[in-house]
Amino acid sequence: MEKISNHLIKLSRQLFADQVEQEKFINIICQPEKFSPGIVWLKNRPLPHPFITAESLSWQPEFCDRLLPDARPGQNPLHDQGDYYCLDFSSIFAATVLSAINKPINIILDMCASPGGKSIFAWRLLQPELIICNETIGKRLGMLFSNLKRCGIQPYRVSNKDSQILADNLPNIADLVIVDAPCTGQSLLVKGEKNPGCFHPININQNANRQKRILANAGKVVKSGGYLAYMTCTYSPAENEIVGQWFSDKFPNFQPVIVENLLAYQSHLTELPCYRLFPQSGIGAGAFTMLWQNQSEDDVNQTISDDLIDQICLANFT
């Protein structure tokens, strides 16, 4: 335990120069609290509203509600009917980076999709002609299929491929690729969940390297003029700002996008336009988010065929 505590103290010093903020950060991790759950409305809100809502935030999407901490939206019949999707409010914050997209989006690929929250948010916001939800871990596919079906997401396809396979077979076809990247998941501690080793440098470095690989492959799928969104639910700069800087340096055709309605959350750890929600804000357990646009003029954008979709994606799941 002492070793974990030392890693946490070091991380707090990386994140904050101010000692008071360091202490707030450590305290909320060691003494978790309840945060307001969020819901993404997929159908019109009924009247009267089935829940008591918290005050809307300046960046909060119109189709999302923040509920009171003790709300149980997953137990309401409207949930089973697919009227809304329950999504952690930190995840809503991260997905809100997509609000900066100002052009029609035809094809979305969610590279790390299960259980489907970011895909469902993106579908609701951008109304694509097709959303492809990829999940490399087979045992997570059932939950993904279930959520997409319950929420009435159409049209969609689900794939179970490594990011390299998608990059090789679907180059330059997506208007938006979402990478909700695998990470150490340090914010799970703030939710009261156990996550041993999440502050250890070896685990952090392993996840950062995996994120770089996925982002590099994801970039190959983005068509000219398309977007790449990168999100995590962890705090370590090595898994967030440093990875974002690495990608920007290695792929200069991808230009970071300023997200106007998240400017108040600009990360103080870099000059790159990327955005942080820290747990001591009281809004959510924490998230990092960033958006790039592919400004290359050399790519030959491809039209995805139904046959190619059938080759890459799963027809059904039983």
The first-level CATH class name: Alpha Beta
Tell me the Rg in angstroms.
Answer: 19 Å
Number of strands: 12
CATH superfamily: Vaccinia Virus protein VP39
Regarding quaternary structure, how should these chains be classified?
A: single chain
Structural commentary:
The protein has helices spanning 2-15, 19-30, 77-80, 89-95, 117-126, 141-150, 163-169, 201-221, 241-250, 306-312; strands at residues 37-41, 64-66, 84-88, 107-110, 130-134, 156-159, 174-180, 222-232, 254-256, 274-277, 287-294, 313-314. The protein is an alpha/beta fold and 318 residues long. It has a single domain (89-314), classed as Vaccinia Virus protein VP39 (Rossmann fold), CATH 3.40.50. The strands form two sheets. Strands 4, 5, 6, 7, 8, 9, 10, 11 and 12 form a nine-stranded mixed beta sheet that branches. Strands 2-1-3 form a three-stranded antiparallel beta sheet. Helix 1 (2-15) crosses helix 2.
Keywords:
Rossmann fold, three-stranded antiparallel β-sheet, alpha/beta, globular, nine-stranded mixed β-sheet, 318 residues, 19% strand
Layout of strands and helices, then pairs:
Elements: H1 2-15, H2 19-30, E1 37-41, E2 64-66, H3 77-80, E3 84-88, H4 89-95, E4 107-110, H5 117-126, E5 130-134, H6 141-150, E6 156-159, H7 163-169, E7 174-180, H8 201-221, E8 222-232, H9 241-250, E9 254-256, E10 274-277, E11 287-294, H10 306-312, E12 313-314
